[in-house]
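WARN retry 2 of 3 for item q-0093 after timeout on previous attempt; input resubmitted unchanged.
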Amino acid sequence: MHISPNDPKQYRYLTLDNKLKVLLVHDADAPRSAAALSVKVGHFDDPVDRQGMAHFLEHMLFLGTEKYPKVGEFQTFINQSGGSNNAWTGTENTTFFFEVSPHAFSEGLDRFGQFFTAPLFNEEAVDKERQAVDSEYKLKVKDDVRRLYQVHKETINPAHPFSKFSVGDLTTLDDRDGKPVRDELIAFYQSHYSADLMSLVLLGPQSLDELESYTNTYFAHIPNTDIAKPAITEPLVTANETAKFIKIEPIKEVRKLTLSFAMPSVEQYYRQKPLSYIAHLLGNEGCGSLMSILKSRGLINTLAAGGGVNGSNFREFTISLNLTPKGLDNIDDIVTAVFQYIHLISQQGLNEWRYKEKQAVLEQAFRYQEKSRPLDTVSYLVMNLFHYAPEDVIYGDYMMTEYNEPLLQELLAYLSPDNMRLVLVAQEQEYDRIAQWYHTPYSISAFTDGQLARWRQVDSSPDLSLPEVNPYICEKLDPHPLVAGAELPPQLIQDLPGFRLWYKQEHEFRVPKGVVYVAIDSPHAVDTPRNIVKTRLCVEMLLEAINESAYPAEIAGMSYNLYAHQGGVTLQLSGFSEKQPLLMKLLLERFEGRTFNPERFQNIKAQMLRNWRNAAEDKPISQLFNELTGILQPNNPPYPVLIEELETIEVDELPEFVEAMFAELHIDTFIYGNWLKEDALALAELLKDAFRVTDQLYGESQRPLVRLGKVGTLRHEVNCNHADSAILMYYQSRKTTPRKIAVYTLANHLMSTTFFHELRTRQQLGYMVGTANLPLNRHPGLILYIQSPVAAPAQLSEAIDEFTNAFALVLLELTEAQWQASKQGLIAQISEPDTNLRARAQRFWVSIGNKDAEFNQRQKVVQELQELSRADMIRFIVEIIKPRTSNRLVMHCQGDAHSNLEPLSIGLPIESIDEFQKKAR
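OK item q-0093 returned
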């Protein structure tokens, strides 16, 4: 098995007697043990009259087995063991995964293994979980991704299983004339869930031998029916479905054009990755690229190549473009340019040096790959077991073994006008059909002879060119030797008026990578909503101006980001460190030579308006979260406020605004990773010159937060324009001490599974049900939320109040062992070591922002958690959370389906947001 030299884990591949494929991973430092099992069964296997069956079965397996019959017991166990779990149903796979503290792994596997040998399919649970599947379907009825996916299903070959409805609802999963769905569910399970169709990955600090013994104990008796799974013989598209123009109406305001080409599966070529090579050239964003030319003509905003659905007998290759209004009027010209570029690639773009460049980048990524979380690791490896030869399971994603020009030409031949489906997603087009399930309006028409003639015979365009040799590919890949003191936390090595520099050489991960954060605080940037919007506009315009010249750096394994926040803006660089100064220089030069091109300004303004208006179509619970943070943090206004300001901003306001912003700056920089101190200081000089930092006396911007204090219950209604209702209750801590953080975090941890079990699984109030820990500006906060297709806010509020009233009793009934296990589970999560350099950088950066100069707040919180008693927690629930005495903010929206029901009337309404925000400090 080919393993990265930077990977200390040990692997063992085996096949059990029942033909279950297994990969064992020993990771001595894993903070948690994790398992994933995938079975080659998905919605393609649903009976035609029981669509959604595979998905329904995935839900049901969690709800009780012979040995562990209690519904919801698996979740409780996982939560108390400091873990998490989930599952998903795809087209041809269903995958289950969980992680827990290592000491609980054996018991976790005992419970998990039962899913595949002895599920109960409890009758009452079958009835209730049908509702959950139906809620999940209804939750997404207004989700554009699902709405468009349905049209995709209806416009391919109707005989291909891709055309089936994958989610299921109350009509597809109902009991019919003496045929309860439960009987069919059991029959489906028994005929499809066979060990020879499964793969399993176990990962943990346990030895390989110990992991192997778990495999034999808990999975060797999964039955193998040995029923050969029939191959799919129908093609995804036939001549009837190609050379078609499909128009679809979205709910959100988008203008997206996708050129889609179907081809047979290319999975057997994973070692050569021919489509990655083609996508790399088509999706290039540098000078002379397809994206660059179409953008300069004002036709598109973004371009992406190489996406598309794939399966055992098909692979779609897509090129997607987000159009400007002008682009919408010139679709044929855009498609012509795409075919010109495809022609250019097949004539001049097939070069071995280009292949080797891409290969070198992947090889570096593999050689210096960093750890991911145990749960993420098992989730992708379990899929690799199906797709790659055993020796390539780890390396398969990174392999590019040989340049094969005939194969590239063969695949490029599929990218032809006759094999294309052109899909336009935009409002206000002509539609003559309505898609099933999601009611999406759409239309299909054949390409005209004129279009086909034009696209088949393209001339080359002098504007288009292929990418040059990439100057950012790193050569020096050995990390710098460690300097004395490298193991210490970050040090403040410059503390000047208006400029602070924190530095740390990374001593543990030993990869040639680094991270640079530059936080630029400017009171002017955030002192009014209008200035906040101008700041965000400037950020987008700068990113836009940088993109073309910085794109090669991204290809070479470096990334950069610029984002606005409550104090100003932050610039972040990450990836291979050797060429980061070169990238920083480029960014700063663009920054200094800033220009505000009116046409680009109009496009970016229109894009931002569209994104913010589209947020009003988000699911209700997302809208409540946005409105909550917007009301509590004046420097982070909600979308309606941003939209109102943006509508009237003009380009000529920006130059003066930026000057004013840069007249009063405070900069905090953190340079971390494979950096020597002298290089960090040199980079700091670059920054100070660019931002003209000389003895400035500006401190950081204030980040105000509304303090709730003793307000009782306040409520605020949001109009969500959705059938579902939603409610969110927020409790805020007055203090920011480690003890308060411990109390609020533990409360969320203790409540989460009981809340989910009670209000979703038992009462079936909706699919989106949960609790969350939401710290705002260092103040801990607890949130309880529900989005419901069946109940209005008044009922949801009652249900939550009943839950919080009874929760103190739930805590009293825990055994001492359960209480300790829950606490230890949370402590294990909080003290978990950083997985990789990027995660550690982020933790240090948050500490710098939180004024935790000792970098030990985590330890302080853990210390407080150790000391918290059950009595402390019960007191917190009774005094702070119980509805009668609590100070809380309740956000809610009354769904269209419940407009005739009584509105929510608890507490007092917030009469004026402006008055409310005067309490911010």
